[in-house]
Recover the amino acids of this structure.
């Protein structure tokens, strides 16, 4: 347990009145994952109550759970003069670059008399490195002699954002620096490569005495379950390598310390969430007219439209009746999405509909662990848990017959 840091929430206080801290998590359909996050928020509220009893601490989710960021900001803005938004994310990913800043931009428009401050993500932080090493040392001996016989595999969540994956590689390097470990290998549980099974296969060939697998996740949950299952498969295949699995980062008092530091820096104007100050969300000189929450996303759409108007592409094709997107990233591929794509294409060929309907393999669509994910446009229908054997029903019922395959529906976009 580390010493509780002192947070100076009043480092920047242009508007008198009550302050609220909104800690934003990702959200999950699994209660276990949400419970871990909400317990952390409650612990932080207890920590802060002794120092700032008038400060409200609340939580929200980007997706898959309630309340949403928009709902929480609107509620807090009713009776708070200042709201500090803390993204409880390990790295600067799409949610922290887009979803959270855009929600804050909407809140600023709806509540102009409330000050909204966006703190940065947890990031690469020495306290998190120490937590991860302590978890590894609790799982297997990592004293001076034990470290030289041990290979560490640090497992990240994986992202479609290369910046986040690059930061994870940096963290992995720092994790092993000066520790005396035989080697430290980074990998991912989904979305990005290399995968954990691929990395563990390499470990087996290297034949270390021990390997410790370190889930660089905030809390236990479905991803940690998947990691444990894949490590068990490795142990069965390579019994001569003693494998241990470390616990996730939380709960730990040092996580509270990192949140404290992020809030204090944001209040002092020294550590704002970077994408909250980009030219599409903040009045940067010369491009003030670009300010507006949704412009950050609409810019790329506008660019694509004007580009196509200026120079028709050589691959231009006739308008499609339906366009089907199928996730082909690592997690969905493991669950059969590649075979599903081939099955859908074959069913379309059999139905002689290939001119009007196209199947496209995509990168991650944000439903890892629930796939394979299939999206049908322009209908706006999202299917999840689609198996290769469902290809015939999808083509017959939806793509040709315009009837939903109800038991596979995940979402209907309005």
């Amino acid at each position: 347990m580390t010493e509780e840091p002192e947070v100076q929430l009043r480092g920047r206080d242009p508007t008198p009145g009550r302050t609220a801290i909104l800690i934003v998590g990702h959200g999950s359909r699994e209660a276990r994952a949400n419970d871990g996050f909400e317990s952390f928020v409650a612990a932080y509220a207890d920590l802060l109550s002794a120092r700032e009893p008038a400060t409200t601490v609340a939580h929200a989710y980007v997706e898959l759970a309630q309340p949403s960021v928009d709902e929480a900001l609107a509620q807090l803005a009713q009776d708070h003069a200042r709201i500090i938004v803390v993204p409880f994310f390990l790295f600067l990913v799409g949610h922290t670059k887009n979803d959270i800043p855009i929600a804050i931009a909407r809140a600023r428009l709806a509540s102009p008399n409330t000050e909204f401050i966006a703190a940065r993500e947890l990031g690469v932080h020495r306290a998190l490195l120490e937590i991860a090493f302590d978890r590894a040392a609790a799982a297997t001996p990592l004293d001076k002699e034990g470290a030289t016989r041990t290979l560490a595999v640090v497992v990240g969540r994986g992202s479609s954002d290369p910046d986040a994956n690059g930061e994870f590689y940096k963290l992995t390097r720092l994790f092993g620096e000066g520790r005396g470990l035989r080697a430290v290998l980074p990998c991912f549980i989904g979305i990005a490569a290399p995968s954990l099974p691929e990395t563990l296969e390499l470990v087996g060939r290297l034949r270390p005495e021990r390997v410790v697998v370190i889930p660089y996740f905030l809390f236990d949950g479905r991803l940690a379950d998947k990691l444990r299952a894949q490590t068990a498969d490795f142990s069965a295949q390579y019994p001569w390598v003693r494998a241990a699995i470390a616990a996730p980062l939380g709960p730990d008092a040092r996580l509270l310390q990192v949140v404290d530091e992020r809030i204090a820096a944001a209040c002092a104007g020294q550590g704002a969430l970077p994408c909250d100050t980009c030219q599409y969300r903040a009045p940067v000189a010369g491009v003030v007219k670009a300010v507006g929450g949704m412009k950050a996303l609409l810019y790329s759409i506008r660019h694509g439209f004007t580009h196509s108007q200026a120079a028709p592409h050589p691959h231009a094709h006739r308008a499609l009746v339906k366009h089907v997107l199928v996730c082909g990233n690592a997690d969905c591929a493991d669950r059969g999405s590649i075979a599903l794509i081939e099955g859908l294409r074959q069913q379309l060929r059999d139905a002689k509909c290939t001119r009007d309907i196209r199947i496209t393999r995509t990168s991650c669509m944000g439903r890892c662990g629930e796939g394979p994910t299939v999206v049908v446009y322009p209908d706006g229908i999202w299917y999840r848990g689609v198996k290769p054997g469902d290809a015939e029903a999808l083509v017959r019922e939806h793509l040709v017959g315009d009837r939903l395959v109800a038991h596979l529906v995940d979402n209907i976009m309005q």
User: Anything to note?
Assistant: The first helix runs from residue 31 to 49. The first strand starts at residue 19 and ends at 25.
